Recover the amino acids of this structure.
């Protein structure tokens, strides 16, 4: 069981939750207020939903041996486009306007993903650099769309996306569930997942084996853009505003972290969507825990840094060997020690 | 016939001259030595960081922690000065902190074979987080030495001036050029970037080179932090956010190949100047907003990477 790829992430998540339970016993309590469920666990799911969605998209890109640094900028751009359209509409509460704004900003997000994908698969750039371009320029584009201001909207239907509730639960949880279900079905019930793992392991061999790797890579980046777009809509609709400077800041790092904690190797080739889900939940729980126990939230970055390092060290084969070697040398029998000292 | 290796750097220099010329024709008062000097004054810290980054990228790695190390340096300096430590203790100490920080990341990268990207990402979080551990507020520096360094103008012939930071930055560039081309460490860095396997088989000191590269980059970052402290006269955890991207962009625009093995400090120098010119043109234009800087830098990055691809042969483009 220890060998199972989800063992350690689950243990970490359970330990975090247990710590929270010991620290404040009403952590798990969920109460009904105004016909909605309230509680820390619901909050974690609700506030973690953008991160989970982005991390799911990032998982596929990383599985292909790539990386997408531009998700934070895409979050800012989609939020800005949607809010701008709604603000300029005659009736901000109209469903048609909101749906059109959502559709257009999602299309923009997919287009940005396509741009990344083209650079990586057709032009052949390194993924870090290809997406770095959009990461740098994207913030500027978001500012340009928003004209350097924070756009605020007052639209009930749009606000529902990030702050509404359905069947007593926050609506964003259903979006997460839908995205997770679709990705899982697409990758695990069709050959697509297998293709991705193959391309992530050895792109050239996969191409020679007849897999259209370019198309698959393009698709993965477009999907990652789509995910970032959805997350951008949730984030901006939750606060009914779009901030080109700060929306989605650091999200790329959190998403990569979630994917890595979930057991997907940065070298590509194998991926675990459930692992990513758990990884994103770990990060969100960690953030909540830090807020709850009253440590200044600024320390979050230090904790995250240590978590990244530890997780990477555990994943590193040479580190495990070094530890194993030390472990073995400590376990020699006592007689041997006497003999060497004599 | 021009050597293929020099094409990117020639393009960079021509681009810089072209942009400066366009600015000079368009705006009155643009074409002066002082405008050029201001480019150096306002980008001295970026120049220092970019020199360290050039070594890292030439070796085939990447260092995302530089911006955070700058912020950490400003923060440590400011808080120590506030407690009455003298500058001649504080400055060597922060340089040591930066070097040790870089050394630590290099050691993890080498010994545990973890990608530089993720290790320096963790370093970035850590340094930024440590800033907030010290304080979440701005700490103002009113130390006499620091204000003197900030305000001293070094007069040049022709009535123009530069700051002491510029002299430090130019010295770092000169030192960088010397180290890259005339020491075994520099040659090893190029070899490592060309092919780590071959470098190892040739018997080069891969271990010490790799760790020292990151140590050098850490040292450069903290030196840039010291210069940045002169420039801002304060310590703050949010200083130099995104500086790592500016530095990487400057190195790439300067013609260094991201795959490692090829690149020049001189190119990086002009890469930094190009970014400075973009900012200057935008401020001269007046009506354009500062976020255009990011878009233009993004476009330049794109252009230069495409250029690199074309020059380095298109076979590897089929890689994926």
């Amino acid at each position: 069981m220890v060998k199972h790829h989800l063992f350690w992430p689950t243990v970490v998540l359970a330990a975090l939750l247990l710590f929270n339970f010991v620290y404040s016993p009403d952590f798990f309590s969920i109460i009904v207020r105004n016909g909605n469920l309230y509680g820390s666990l619901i909050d974690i799911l609700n506030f973690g939903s953008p991160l989970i969605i982005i991390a799911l998209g990032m998982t596929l890109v990383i599985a292909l041996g790539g990386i997408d640094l531009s998700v934070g900028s895409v979050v800012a751009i989609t939020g800005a486009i949607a809010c701008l359209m709604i603000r300029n509409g005659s009736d901000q509460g109209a469903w048609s306007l909101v749906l059109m704004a959502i559709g257009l900003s999602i299309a923009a997000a997919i287009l940005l993903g396509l741009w990344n994908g083209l650079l990586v698969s057709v032009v052949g750039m390194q993924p870090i650099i290809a997406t770095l371009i959009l990461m740098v320029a994207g913030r500027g584009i978001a500012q340009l769309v928003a004209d350097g201001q924070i756009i605020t909207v007052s639209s009930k239907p749009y606000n529902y996306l990030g702050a509404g509730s359905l069947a007593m639960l926050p609506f964003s949880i259903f979006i997460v569930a839908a995205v997770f279900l679709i990705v899982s079905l697409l990758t695990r019930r069709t050959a697509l997942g297998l293709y991705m793992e193959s391309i992530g392991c050895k792109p050239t061999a996969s191409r020679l084996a007849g897999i259209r790797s370019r198309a698959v890579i393009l698709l993965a980046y477009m999907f990652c853009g789509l995910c970032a777009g959805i997350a951008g809509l949730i984030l901006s609709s939750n606060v009914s505003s779009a901030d080109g400077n700060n929306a989605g800041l650091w999200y790329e790092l959190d998403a990569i972290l979630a994917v890595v904690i979930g057991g997907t190797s940065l070298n590509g080739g194998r991926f675990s969507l459930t692992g990513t889900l758990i990884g994103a939940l770990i990060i969100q729980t960690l953030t909540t825990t830090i807020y709850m126990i009253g440590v200044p939230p600024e320390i979050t970055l230090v904790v995250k840094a240590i978590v990244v390092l530890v997780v990477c060290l555990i994943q590193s084969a040479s580190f495990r060997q070094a530890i194993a070697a030390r472990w073995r040398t400590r376990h020699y029998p006592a007689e041997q020690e006497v003999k060497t000292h004599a | 016939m021009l050597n293929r290796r020099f094409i990117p750097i020639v393009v960079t220099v021509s681009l810089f001259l072209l942009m400066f010329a366009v600015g000079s024709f368009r705006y009155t008062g643009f074409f002066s030595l002082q405008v050029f000097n201001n480019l150096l004054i306002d980008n001295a810290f970026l120049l220092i960081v970019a020199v360290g980054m050039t070594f890292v990228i030439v070796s085939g790695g990447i260092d995302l922690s530089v911006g955070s190390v700058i912020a950490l340096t400003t923060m440590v300096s400011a808080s120590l000065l506030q407690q009455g430590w003298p500058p001649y203790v504080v400055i060597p100490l922060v340089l040591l902190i930066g070097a040790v920080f870089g050394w630590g990341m290099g050691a993890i990268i080498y010994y545990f074979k973890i990608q530089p990207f993720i290790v320096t990402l963790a370093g970035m979080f850590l340094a930024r987080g440590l800033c907030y551990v010290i304080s979440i507020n701005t700490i103002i520096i009113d130390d006499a030495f620091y204000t003197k360094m900030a305000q001293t103008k070094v007069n040049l012939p022709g009535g123009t001036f530069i700051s002491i930071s510029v002299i430090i930055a130019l010295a770092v560039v000169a030192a960088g050029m010397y180290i890259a081309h005339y020491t075994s460490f520099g040659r090893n860095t190029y070899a490592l970037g060309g092919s780590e396997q071959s470098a190892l088989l040739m018997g080069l000191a891969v271990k010490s080179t790799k760790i020292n590269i990151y140590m050098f980059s850490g040292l450069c970052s903290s030196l840039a932090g010291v210069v940045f402290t002169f420039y801002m006269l304060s310590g703050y955890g949010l200083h130099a956010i995104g500086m790592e991207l500016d530095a990487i962009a400057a190195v790439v625009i300067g013609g260094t190949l991201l795959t490692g093995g090829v690149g020049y400090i001189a190119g990086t120098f002009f890469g930094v100047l190009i970014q400075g010119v973009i900012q200057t043109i935008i401020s001269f234009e007046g009506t354009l907003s500062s976020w255009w800087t990011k878009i233009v830098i993004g476009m330049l990055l794109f252009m230069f990477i495409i250029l690199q691809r074309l020059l380095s042969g298109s076979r590897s483009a089929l890689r994926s």
Summary: The first helix of chain B runs from residue 7 to 26.
